[in-house]
Design goal:
Elements lengths: L5 H4 L4 E7 L2 E7 L5 E7 L2 H12 L4 E2 L7 H9 L17 H10 L8 E2 H7 L6 H9 L12 E2 L12 H11 L5
Parallel strand pairs: 1-4, 5-6
Antiparallel strand pairs: 1-2, 2-3
């Protein structure tokens, strides 16, 4: 996996925290205000430390609403936003995982796709398990709607160990699942 160099990190990667119904949403941005990671957790420092480790450096906290993402998250959780308008830096994913996650961004609000369907869209029809791995370990959640990827049977499947959050997000969007 390619990582940012220390020189790049020391030039201004920063993070913001937005409270949401599913925990603190920690957004990490490049110096150019491009989203490189978005994770949710009860403890925001867990996400900060994890991303800082991946970037091989430290992150600076900011109270700014970088790229308007905090406002967009608020609108999403209020049911007023269906898509996010933020540039994404894919540098923390590579290969097929990146291809699969980029396909996941095409799943419309309120709809779902199976792991197999995403694998097919990404050009590797038999790689449904690899899609599951990419979704589980993505550094970009919510804006990359991995919660919209479900089992072919219509059952939810996993969501970074928290099926309740996946169900909450799908219910928020009005998606039908078993």
């Amino acid at each position: 996996m390619s990582h940012a160099t220390w020189d790049t990190v020391s030039r201004g990667y920063r993070y913001s925290v937005t409270r949401t119904p599913i925990g603190a949403a920690v957004a990490v941005f490049t110096p150019a205000d491009v989203l490189v990671a978005l994770g949710t957790a009860d403890d925001p420092l867990w996400v900060v430390e994890s991303v800082a480790h991946e970037l091989r450096g430290s992150l600076e906290a900011t109270g700014d609403d970088v790229a308007g993402l905090g406002s967009q998250l608020g609108e999403y959780f209020a049911g007023e936003r269906r898509a996010f308008d933020v540039d994404i830096d894919w540098s923390l994913t590579e290969g097929f995982a990146r291809d699969a996650l980029q396909c996941v961004t095409e799943i419309p609000y309120g709809e779902t796709a199976s792991y197999g369907e995403v694998a097919e869209l990404a050009g590797r029809p038999r790689a449904h398990r690899a899609v599951g791995t990419a979704c589980r370990y993505t550094p970009l959640t919510i804006v990359v709607p991995v919660h919209r990827v479900i089992l072919a049977s219509g059952a939810l499947g996993g969501f970074s160990g928290n099926e309740e959050v996946k169900r909450f997000l799908l219910d928020l969007e009005g998606a039908r699942v078993r």
